[in-house]
């Protein structure tokens, strides 16, 4: 069964999930990890975020996803201002992120990991489970079916009963994607989905991103693998030392001398 995200998107504008970063700054002990970051991840598109280590990419993700407050600036998801909102509020606005290093619940199975995504489930409310057991049971069944469909979509059915701590790093990245999809997001932030993933599995991840994007999900992706960025992204934003140094079409960005300089001090990419 394929994942059907359509019903969840039907109430939304055709193009949703635009993420606007406006002059965002954040310092750690005086070090400006984010020093006035401006860019937009366009609705319905795949935007790449690249830059050398320490550029501030992960810090930006933390700020967007509600894991970190900002010192100044604004972050908007469509019409909602989300900067300095707690993670669960950002999550309920339809934005989810994955981590550079996957963080599955290692002692839960792959399927349980997918099912254990916070949602406004009736079963979580004490009185509802007492008063309306049939409704709760129906909801749990629906949740299981949804998790199964998403796990299958992510190519994880064969390992769905294995502990998430026992599968490969690449498969754990797919578990993170599955968990993200359980939230019916309009925007997904992926932090280095290709890191430590074997080439065959990387192809699978690329394919899934393309398919999800075709269904309307907006992506912002941090990735060092240039082939990955070139083949996938509509636009690439380049950060260095807490600032955006350029943005544009992948071909133009990769050929930009400022980008080459930022990465390698002048050597070609
Ligand atoms: N929680 C933190 N405390 C102190 N410094 C941090 C913290 N998070 C990030 N930094 C610093 O912010 C800068 C940007 O880091 P990061 O966002 O991880 O870069 P990137 O993901 O682009 O490699 C680095 O200098 C890093 O050491
Ligand atoms: Mg990082």
From TrEMBL:
Q: Which molecular-function annotations from GO does this UniProt entry contain? A: ATP binding; ATP hydrolysis activity
Taking the first listed entry, what is the main subcellular location of this protein, grouped into a coarse class?
membrane
The keyword DNA repair is assigned to this record: no
Q: Which domain of life is it from?
A: Bacteria
What PROSITE patterns does UniProt report for this protein, alphabetically? ABC_TRANSPORTER_1, ABC_TRANSPORTER_2
Cellular compartment(s): Cell inner membrane
GO CC list: plasma membrane
Q: Which UniProt keywords apply?
A: ATP-binding, Nucleotide-binding, Transport
Q: Which Pfam families match?
A: ABC_tran, BCA_ABC_TP_C
List, for all copies, the residue spans of the domain called ABC transporter. 19-266
Q: Which InterPro entries match?
A: AAA+_ATPase, ABC_AA/LPS_Transport, ABC_transporter-like_ATP-bd, ABC_transporter-like_CS, BCA_ABC_TP_C, P-loop_NTPase
Establish whether keyword Manganese is in the entry: no
Which protein family is named in the record?
Answer: Belongs to the ABC transporter superfamily.
What protein am I looking at?
Answer: ABC-type branched-subunit amino acid transport system ATPase component
- In the record, what lineage is assigned to the organism producing the protein? Bacteria, Pseudomonadati, Pseudomonadota, Alphaproteobacteria, Hyphomicrobiales
């Amino acid at each position: 069964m394929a994942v059907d995200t359509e019903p969840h998107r039907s109430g939304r504008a055709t193009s949703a999930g635009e993420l606007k970063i406006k002059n965002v700054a954040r310092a750690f002990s005086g070090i400006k990890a984010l020093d006035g970051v401006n860019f937009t991840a366009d609705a319905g598109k795949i935007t790449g975020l690249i830059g050398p280590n320490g550029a501030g990419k992960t810090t930006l993700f933390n700020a967007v996803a509600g894991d970190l407050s900002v010192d100044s600036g604004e972050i908007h998801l469509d019409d909602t201002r989300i900067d300095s909102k707690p993670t669960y509020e950002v999550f309920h606005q339809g934005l989810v992120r994955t981590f550079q290093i996957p963080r599955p619940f290692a002692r839960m199975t792959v399927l349980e990991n997918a099912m254990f995504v916070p949602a406004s489930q009736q079963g979580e409310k004490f009185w509802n489970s007492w008063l309306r057991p049939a409704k709760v049971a129906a909801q749990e069944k629906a949740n299981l079916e949804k998790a199964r469909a998403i796990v299958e979509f992510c190519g994880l059915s064969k390992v769905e009963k294995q502990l998430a701590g026992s599968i490969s790093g690449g498969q754990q990245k797919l578990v993170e994607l599955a968990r993200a999809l359980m939230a019916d997001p309009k925007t997904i932030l992926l932090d280095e989905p290709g890191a430590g993933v074997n080439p065959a599995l990387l192809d699978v991840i690329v394919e899934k991103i393309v398919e999800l994007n075709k269904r309307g999900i907006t992506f912002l992706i941090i990735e060092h693998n240039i082939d990955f960025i070139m083949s996938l992204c509509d636009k690439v934003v380049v950060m260095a030392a807490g600032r955006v140094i350029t943005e544009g079409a992948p071909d133009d960005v990769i050929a930009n001398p400022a980008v080459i300089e930022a990465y390698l001090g002048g050597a070609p990419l």
